[in-house]
Amino acid sequence: MSKRVAILFSLAVFTFGAITVSAQSDDAPKKEDKIPGFKGEVIAQLKDAAGKYISLAKATPDEKLSWRPAEGIRSNTEVWMHVANANFLISKALGADVPSDLPKEMEKVTDRKQVLHYLKLSFETAGMQIMKLKEEDLGKEVDFFGQKRTSRDVLLTLAVHCQNHLGQSVAYARMNGVKPPWAR
After folding, report:
1. CA-wise closest residue to 80 among 32, 23, 122
2. pTM for this predicted structure
């Protein structure tokens, strides 16, 4: 097993183990909406994560949006905007046309309406680009921030990154007495 695969696998196991949630969000894909194959699996992960990010951003009180666990650590809105920015950058690496009017410093956006807008738009952009990829293109290499990686590997990175920061957001919420809306 290559070092990169081992690291991704370990990160995925840690991330999914840390997010112990039993229910999916309302935005989770329905059985009839299921897209076959690897692309469908990634899209299902992203739809689930998007719904959870949106519901958590809506449930977080205004006074907790700028909360951070310690000095120098990202705040709630900074985490969410980091995810949105990464979704755009990763989608672009896969060939997506991203909006040209995105803020230059995404993580400085703190207004809830704007954060929600960019989160939604970033997940929509990623989903649309994934749908444009052909199954046979998943094994083709793309430039990913100076590295040659397959499109499949980049999609794994996208899904794992989203789930990793979702776990972080859940931890932030619980530290602030906010129960994730999808949790029982």
Report:
1. 122
2. 0.81
